[in-house]
Specification:
The protein has 151 residues and is an all-alpha fold. It has 7 helices and no strands.
């Protein structure tokens, strides 16, 4: 289960007290189907805080000669199933740029970053959209509407 709350919300939960933490988290799902809330209340495992982080989609960095970034280091975004694919794509594109400019590393890095930025922005925007569908204020209704073609 996942909760989208400000980080401060979690500071009041004592995760070392498994029963209390479980009860507090379960209260957030009051009114949900008992089969769902049982996954929290009746589980054998204590809740674990695992925050998600993302950079703003438009985030860019200042170039440092001879250095570039790829994968999550370059475009950390909310999960959407594309992270590993995008990192491998970045690596392949960086390799192609370096091969195309073997004597001009800065040209290769600039070319790579120029192509990588819009590609990663699109994936980041999709990650934000997917996160909102699954965990936004309208969840799960937005997700259901997406699958059923509803409003």
């Amino acid at each position: 289960m996942m909760l989208t709350r400000p980080r401060d919300w979690f500071t009041d939960i004592d995760f070392t007290d498994s029963a209390a933490a479980t009860a507090r988290i379960a209260r957030e799902f009051a009114g949900w189907a008992p089969e769902i809330t049982a996954l929290i209340a009746d589980g054998d495992t204590a809740p674990v805080l695992r925050p998600l982080f993302a950079l703003p989609v438009e985030h860019r960095w200042e170039r440092v000669p001879g250095v570039t970034l790829l994968g999550d280091a370059a475009h950390l975004s909310l999960p959407n199933g594309e992270g590993a694919n995008l990192a491998m794509y970045d690596a392949a594109e960086l390799g192609k740029a370096l091969a195309a400019h073997p004597d001009a590393v800065e040209t290769a890095l600039t070319e790579y970053e120029r192509a990588m930025s819009p590609r990663s922005a699109a994936a980041g925007t999709e990650g934000t959209y997917v996160h909102e569908l699954f965990y936004g204020d309208d969840a799960p209704h937005g997700l259901i509407n997406m699958f059923t073609g509803g409003e």
